[in-house]
Each structure stands twice: as structure tokens, then as C-alpha cells.
Amino acid sequence: MAINKTQLRASIIEVLATCPRPELASPAAVELLLGTAAQESGFGTYLEQMGNGPARGFFQMEPATAKWIEGLNMKSPLPPDLLKWARGFRDDETVEWALEYRIDYQIAMCRLRYWVVPAPLPEAGDTAGQAAYWKRWYNTPAGAGTEAEYMAEYKKFVAAR
Length: 161
Prior knowledge:
- The chain is mostly helical.
- It has one domain (5-159).
- The chain contains 8 helices and no strands.
- It has helices at 5-17, 27-41, 63-70, 80-88, 95-101, 103-115, 127-139, 147-159.
């Protein structure tokens, strides 16, 4: 069962509004996170990766990716203000637990995963651009997902009335 899109959008906006860098809370970022949740987990239909893989949560982030962003295994790619913001959502919980059960942490980590990308976000309303951006930078060219799937899932979960 998927989460209500209005509630997920509100949660994304609320979490991003607490970011020490207001530009991370742009309408384009909100749309990209909604599209990522639609494609990666069917809007929360699958919170554990199918096939017993390591990915977790609405955005199907792997713990290794979250640990890299947080700098737990090597130097974090984040400046101190964003690192403190991200870690604040996890408290003393493990990364694995937070990726599955803390929606605020999942939102922050997904946004930061896109923040470290060396290319600007696609404009709000550019679903095809979002699909290409997601494929290149989140799913990766080697990933199983396709831009067409992203667009279909976006239409199904985000754009549907």
C-alpha cells in the first residue's frame, strides 16, 4: 500500500525547510524526491528491497550510500552544516534502521545524495529531465531502472489525481 502523495509531499517540504541551506528545498528538489519515491518503492509499497537486497525505505537507498554521505566509512562529501543536519535525523539509531523507519532521515539523505551531484537539478515540471537525472545520478547507468519506468511511476503516483 502506497503512502498518500499529499502527505509525502508535505513531509518532504517540512524536512527540507529545516535544512540550513534553503536552496535545497526548491520545488524542483521536491518533485525529484517525489519521483524518486515513486520509481524506487512505488511510493512506499516496498520499503525493503525486493530479492533481499540492501536498499531500504521510500527512496531505496543502500546503507553503504548513506554511510558514504555521512562520512562513516570515509570522508563525507558534505560540508559541516549539511552533515550535522543529516545526522540530526538519525540520532543514535543505526543507518540501516533509520533508512527503513525514519522518513525524515530518508528524505534528508535522498536530497543530499542529489546535492553531491555535479550537475544542477532539472527544472520543476520537467519530468523527462528528472527521469534522466534520476537514471544517471541515482539509479546509475548500470542500474536496472529506466527513464520510461520513472515517467510511468511519476504519472501513476505523483501526477495522478
